[in-house]
Amino acid sequence: MNDCRFDIETKNILNKLEETRKEFWNLPHESANFINMLIKIAKAKRVLEIGTSNGYSGIWISKALLETGGKLDTIEFYQKRIDLALENFKKANVNDIITIHKGSALNIIDEFENNTFDFVFIDASKPEYLDYFLKLESKITKNAIILADNVTSHYKKVENFLNYVKNNKNYQCELLNFDGGLFFIRKI
């Protein structure tokens, strides 16, 4: 892993988490690195992640946010995964810029009444992608970037979401050929 200037401890944590990728449905390394670079390029400050899992993608996101001066809100349903993520965030020294929200993303998104996000990463329950997106529409800023993972590997489960975005004049989008498929959306 020489594509980021991470410290040795962070590299070691990420390498260990990559070994459990299938168990925790973590992003492939290439997708995580892309998201990290994109956050820096966009100078994103307010990031929302739907689907914390064991913290792998959250570490990549937070390391970028350390450069932009941003914060991460991440949502996870399962306590076991939250505990693992907290441990990994502490080891990677990013826990102070992350807020983990426990519960159903559909309920928690409603709690972000006055919050807006300039970057959103969706990697949770595939049949709920459209529901997440509809609840988020009023909470994402102009030119916000939204990425949704696993859109080709789980196409039937996310087809309604893909069609909604593709046919909506408020968004520009492109399917990126990363492992599992990464859907790149920009709010116009």
Secondary-structure topology with pairs:
Layout lengths: L7 H12 L1 H4 L4 H14 L3 E5 L5 H13 L2 E6 L2 H13 L6 E5 L2 H7 L5 E6 L6 H8 L3 E10 L5 H12 L4 E6 L5 E6 L1
Parallel strand pairs: 1-2, 1-4, 2-3, 4-5
Antiparallel strand pairs: 5-7, 6-7
Helix pairs in contact: 3-4, 6-7, 7-8
Description:
This protein is α/β, with parallel strands linked by helices. The chain has one domain (28-187): Vaccinia Virus protein VP39 (Rossmann fold), CATH 3.40.50. The protein is 44% helix and 23% strand. It is built from eight helices and seven strands. It has helices spanning 8-19, 21-24, 29-42, 56-68, 79-91, 105-111, 129-136, 155-166; strands at residues 46-50, 71-76, 98-102, 117-122, 140-149, 171-176, 182-187. A seven-stranded mixed beta sheet has the order 3-2-1-4-5-7-6, with helices on both faces. Helix 3 packs parallel to helix 4, helix 6 (105-111) runs parallel beside helix 7 (129-136) and helix 7 (129-136) runs parallel beside helix 8 (155-166). The longest helix has 14 residues, at 29-42. 40% of the residues are buried.
